[in-house]
Predict the 3D structure of the following.
Amino acid sequence: MLQLTGLTKRFGARTVLDDVSFGVERGRLTGFVGGNGAGKTTTMRIVLGLLADNGGEVLLDGAALTADRRRGFGYMPEERGLYPKMKVLEQITYLARLHGFSARDAAARATEILEKLGLAERLGDAIESLSLGNQQRAQIAAALVHGPDVLILDEPFSGLDPLAVDVVVSVLQERAASGAAVLFSSHQLDVVERLCDDLVIIAGGTVRAAGGRDELRREHGGSRFELATSGDTGWLRAEPGVDVVEFDGGRAVFDAADAETAARVLRRAVAEGDVTAFTPLQPSLAQIFKEVVA
């Protein structure tokens, strides 16, 4: 497990990280979300040893990180950093060689990961000739080619179409299933919600929420319900403690002041006619994000 505890970072008089603490479990995809300037990239760079912190610690499996241990990490920065004139396979093979693989093994590993990422037809093309989406796939291949046990990706889905996102995610899930800890940042909340196991929401340099995706949904679910009946649900508008959000004849979405209010509504709905659905609604990640950063 990658564990961050009490990370603090200041640039001059400005505090950009304030007591940032969360964990990244092995075998799981952890989404790291926040607006521009929230502290995501700064946090990642401290974990990688690219920035010094002003307090706190980062542990891997309970031990402090060393430079040697960090060399085995996989990192994809938001800014593309590959050599534009080099051919795709040549570039990724070169990076594998830097991690100590023989020429033969490096080429084999590079070919395998590039094929998994859908670049089998572009191995001999120069990086600069690729579309932005394919350059992004090549950048991800660079982070993965040495089989890292900690993978940190800054906006990995930027510029990717939905099909490409699915390809990349399958590769990341495979890496996580092998026992790696995977942390990725993204502004695409719908993608994060669909793909990640755990979430960390940061704003203003502080962690506002962290935990399993479903756990956070339950925690921030509140008391919103969907009611569908064979009759009319217009009577809901007059119910004490009920705020109707959506209404369409026999279907309504409403917020209940408390559990007793919701139970009272259900009892009346049953008395009024056949109830075809009475379901608590869980919030989306976008809704949770708005709630915790407000």
